[in-house]
Amino acid sequence: MSFDPATLSRILTALTLGFHIIFATIGVGVPVMIMIAEWLGIRKQDPHYILLARRWARGFTVTVAVGVVTGTAIGMQLSLLWPSFMKVAGQVIALPLFMETFAFFFEAIFLGIYLYTWDRFKKPLYHWLFVIPVVIGSSASAFFITTVNAFMNTPQGFTLANGAIAAIEPIKAMFNPATPSKVAHVLASSYLTSAFILAAITAWSILKGKGGEYHRKALRLTMIWGLVFAVGTIVVGDLSGKFLAKYQPEKLAAAEWHFETKPQADLLLGGTLDPETQEVKGALVLPGALSILAGGTTNTEVKGLNDFPQELWPPLYVHYLFDLMVILGMYLAVVAGLFILARAWKKKYEWNPWLLRSIVAGGPLAMIAIELGWMYAEIGRQPWILRGYMKTSEGATMSGDVGQMLILFALLYAVLAIVSTSVLLRMFRNNSPELEMQKRGIQQ
Amino acid sequence: MSLEMIGITVLWIFLYGYVIVASIDFGAGFFSYYGKITGKGEIVNKVINRYLSPVWEVTNVFLIFFIVGIVGFFPDTAYYYGTALLVPGSIALILLAIRGSFYAFNHYGSKTSNVYLFLYGTTGLFIPASLATVLTISEGGFIVEEGSQIRLLMDQLFTSPFSWSVVFLALVSVLFISSSFLTYYANKAEDREAEKVLRSWALFWALPTIFASFLVFVSMRNHNVEHFNAMLNSSWLFVVSMAFFLAALGLIMQRKAYGLAFLFVMLQFASAFFGYGQSHLPYLLYPYITIHDGVTSSVMGEALIWAFIGGLVLLVPSLVLLMKMFLFDAKYVKGQN
Ligand code: HDD
Ligand code: HEM
Ligand code: HEM
């Protein structure tokens, strides 16, 4: 691989987005959990849930800050690193990008109000109402930005003749075929990941011997919602597969090393590929499962890579990214399911240390699934930046300085990662839930 | 009004909004660091924190809005500025990132740290300097197109007196705008000591602001005569600006009506900013992009305007609510809430 500006731009874009998405995911999902916890607290008049909401919101401020600054970075880098792409695509997708800023605005205003008005109202319900615009704003911004990414996968709503864009239909461009499954999958997986991260922190405290009522309530709450969102994510993931089979078959085929177009196609897990003979060794074969993923029945015909010219194939290692994401999805659903079963079956198994350890692992694993999913979605689109219209190499800047900028930003993200983690740790250690309950006179 | 005029007007209004709120924010960060090292920290910091905490994120969105909007309305700007500004743009971004995140770390984290405060305070001066440089570049002469290559002439930028006078103006304006706002805020909070300190800062930075504006005016003549002449044609706006400045200065000196004084400061900058902007037209980048040939298609332009109207309907009431709860709520301002 040569390090021309286009390659470096891809690496820098991937670095920024890969870093941003960690905080963006938390930014979309955690407000939902805060909303649920505070609502429960008000309805059951249970100060534990209110404290939960309060503490989550406090940690949230730090992740939002990093989300905002990295988001600002990616927003500007789109123009700095992909000027030719933005000049063309910008004419068609300016609308959702523009609306996204309104969604941020809306969210930022109400987040400020929410954070600083905890004890200001006589009726606690009024305070709860302020979290709703935060939830709407953050999910709406995820919606808008994901339509942009969907557009890059299945562009429509314009015509291109001699390099000039004409007949632009902004709404049609936004609601392209990739939009429904992508938006739903991104939202569901953000909620899932946030629920699991909060659960992991709680399970960790319980393992450390802090098993008060407060922690138990927190874990039950996050696990119930974790299960709901896990099932949702898997169902929508299945829809994403059906979308790919219809509109972006080369991406699905690359993920499954599926070369010949045929019905009764098998799903492969793991394995190694000999690119010359197109033979797969050592994979776990699920007969007919790829046809089911693609169309719901084993008789669905699935397009194979050999139907496409080889220079338009995505890199074939996306197979592993896809497999890992799917396995992690199953893992999360199973862990959350086990926890709830254990509780229904025999209460004492609920706090089984191995179960708790699996929940602790689930937090980071969910975030890894997000990263893998995006890597699969973005690398699986290669060599296109705008599928069918513009190659990635044609969209990039020609500046020779991208390499230095890459180093600078890598340093910045390293500092941000280290400092934000230590700030969060310090914040919760110095003010433990036990201390805070004491201070607020809440029974433990 | 034509599509491109509506577009640029809206964007310019937002940029003006950013200049005001960001100046308050940047200057406040600097003062709070300065206060800390000179031992005047306690008083000033209390006032500053109470104002800044709920609004810092909103400030940042103004900037995002401008960037997304200008690329949306005028896609050519992405191509020219995007290519040329990779390095300075990235540096400004890193400064913004350090500033925003360290503010939050310092404020929400359980321990305040002098390092965080230092980063927060000093980046607040470098950011306006680097952002103002984009306006310098838009005057032409620093970006050249050679074949299909677009280059930024860094050494010319660094040795140009015009460029430095703009940086100087940006810095002193930031300090002047924010100290005059914070004087008003301290006064509302009935924090007499903070008010005294902040008022003396406002007076201190007043004259340098006017001097710097004058410098920019003069050096513009050497750098871009066309724009200089256009500015002379709308010179009445600059005269109005001067009048507002004198009125504001008079009020602050007499310790009277700080709120009105700050309104005059805003109007002083508004008239100068719009005078500058109007005379800059039709160019977005001398001599490559004008608003007429750089504008997006009319379908997209109209869609953006509708989105904008819809967005305002949502945002204006929300912003009013925010200001009511924090800026104009007497109990909150005094720290009783
Ligand atoms: C917690 C995270 C997570 C989990 C458990 C899963 N996914 Fe996923 N997946 C994502 C997080 C994600 C994502 C980050 O949200 C992606 C990246 C781009 C996108 O649209 O969503 C994604 C993309 C993505 C795509 C590509 C869509 C496209 O390019 O348009 C497919 C086909 C699937 N997923 C399918 C699945 C299936 C069948 C799963 C079953 C277990 C699954 N995902 C679990
Ligand atoms: C936030 C979620 C996203 C993540 C985590 C993500 C991740 C990635 C990754 C890993 C790459 C590198 C692919 C490669 O080099 O082969 C990439 C490329 C890219 N992404 Fe995304 N992406 C996201 C959403 C988007 C969106 C919404 C846009 C458009 C506005 C976008 C624009 C790009 C561009 C322009 C590139 C470079 C060209 C390319 O390599 O395809 N991405 N992204
Ligand atoms: C699906 C993937 C993404 C999600 C879910 C997401 C979500 C978020 C969230 C929740 C924030 C914090 C906003 C706030 O609290 O004010 C944020 C910030 C931001 N994101 Fe992302 N983002 C994603 C990808 C991207 C991409 C690809 C871009 C680039 C076009 C982008 C641009 C921004 C910008 C500009 C900000 C800063 C806005 C501000 O200053 O408030 N995001 N994003």
Tell me about this structure.
The complex is a heterodimer of chains A (444) and B (337). With 444 residues, chain A is mainly alpha-helical. Chain A has helices spanning 5-44, 47-81, 83-115, 124-129, 131-153, 170-174, 179-207, 213-247, 249-256, 289-295, 318-345, 353-379, 392-395, 402-430, 433-440, and strands at residues 159-161, 164-166, 267-269, 272-274, 279-281, 284-286, 384-386, 390-391. In chain A, the strands form 4 sheets. Chain A has a two-stranded antiparallel sheet with strand order 1-2. In chain A, strands 3-6 form a two-stranded antiparallel sheet. In chain A, strands 4-5 form a two-stranded antiparallel sheet. In chain A, β1 and β2 form a beta hairpin. Chain A is globular, with a radius of gyration of 23 Å. With 337 residues, chain B is mainly alpha-helical. Chain B has one domain (3-333). The longest helix of chain B is centred in the N-terminal third of the chain and has 36 residues, at 3-38. Chain B starts with a helix and ends with a helix. In chain B, 53% of the residues are buried. The mean pLDDT of chain B is 79. Chains A and B meet through α2, α3 and α14 of A and α2, α3, α4 and α12 of B. The complex binds CIS-heme D hydroxychlorin gamma-spirolactone and protoporphyrin IX containing FE (2 copies). Residues 153, 178, 182, 185-186, 189, 192-193, 233-234, 237-238, 240-241, 244, 251, 325-326, 328-330, 332, 366, 369-370, 373-374, 376-377 of chain A line the site of CIS-heme D hydroxychlorin gamma-spirolactone (HDD).
